[in-house]
Amino acid sequence: MNKIYAVNTLDFYLSLAGVFLLLLVLLHFFPGLVPFGLYQLLFFKYSWVTMKTIPWTLLFFGPVVTLLFRLFSKSPKQANRDVLRQFDYKIWTSIKAGIFEEIAFRWLLFFYLIIIFTLDNLLLNWLSTVGFISAVLSLPWWALGLVLLAINLIAMVAYALGVDKKTGCTVMILSLFIVIPVFLIDLTVILALLKVWYVVAAIPIINFLTLGKLAPQLLGYSWMVGAALITSNWRFGNGHASQGPIGWLDSLIFGMLMFWFTFNFGLFFAMLIHAAYDILVNLIVAGDAALELAIT
To answer: How far apart are CA 178 and CA 151, in angstroms?
Structure first.
């Protein structure tokens, strides 16, 4: 039985259509939410000079690991027959993945996440101006931790009393005056920590690991763009987690390279490279399977 891939399901395409329509509406009325035009990445160009700067060792990490694994392992005959039987299906899936996974992760999800992080940042900026929240956030980190612990314990007690039917309506209303402010303080702290995580840790680390090749996108815009790029690629990697730790790591590396292709050569070029990459991996697996069946 053929494995079901996301690009072979109706839900995947319905999700893409839904996100596209949402972006179409939001960017029509609020074009400043994303620092790119909706169709800005939809181009195709090629340059030998730029191609020479590609870290080819990273690009071929997956195919080389696949080749070595297949050469130094032996699969059962039935497994090899299944590989050959599913070959056409895998090639067709590779073509669709090359096209639609790039549309999903390097365009639509990337833009959508920029909007989400932008809204998070706007909410954080607004909450930080509220008097009692600003006062709490201005405390030293150790005092902030103690205050958060204390007010959350109080809020838990207030919530328990508020939902207890025996306490009556007055107690429930009074509990809301405790629970809601604490919730807003907690939300502000979470949003602030999220921003710190990306600005101080994630974006600089990814910029270092990618040898600065995505620095214009990671560092040249607001932190929300860098956060969206990293998060979209993380989702792309998690979508391939079923391939094991090596497959997951390869997907993360490959996803960052696809972002580099998208920004330098356009989304259509990234689609071509993605499809060719997946087809190459499937050819290696099928070739090894055919060879094993021929010599056994």
So the answer is: 9
Asked if residue 50 belongs to a domain, the reply is no
Asked whether residue 71 is domain-assigned, the answer is no
Residue-range definition of the domain harbouring residue 249: 56-66+82-294
List Cα–Cα distances, 249 to 109, 178, 198, 254, 283, in angstroms: 20, 45, 20, 9, 21
pLDDT surpassing 70 at residue 2 = no
172 has a pLDDT exceeding 90: no
- Does residue 3 surpass a pLDDT of 80? no
Task: Give every CB contact of residue 174 below 8 A, 6+ residues apart in sequence.
Answer: 158, 162
Answer yes or no: is pLDDT of 20 > 60.
yes
pLDDT of residue 4 exceeding 70: no
User: Mean pLDDT over residues 70-90, rounded?
Assistant: 88
DSSP per-residue codes, 193-239: HHHHIIIIIIHHHHHHHTTTTTHHHHTSS-HHHHHHHHHHHHHHHHT
Amino acid identity at 107: W
- Is 130 inside a domain boundary? yes
Q: Structural domain tally of the chain? A: 1
Three-class DSSP labels, 14-60: HHHHHHHHHHHHHHHHCHHHCCCCCCCCCCCCCCHHHHCCCCHHHHC
Q: How confident is the model at residue 205 (pLDDT cuts 50, 70, 90)?
A: very high
Give the other-Cβ count within 10 Å of 22's Cβ: 14
CB-count exposure of residue 268 (10 Å: 0-12, 13-18, 19+): middle
Q: Which has the closest alpha carbon to 94: 3, 1, 13, 7?
A: 7
d(CA 64, CA 74): 17
The dihedral region occupied by 9, where left means phi > 0, alpha psi between -120 and 50, and beta the remainder, is beta
User: Taking a C-beta distance cutoff of 8 angstroms, is the pair 128, 188 a contact?
Assistant: yes
| 185 sits in which H/E element | helix 168-196
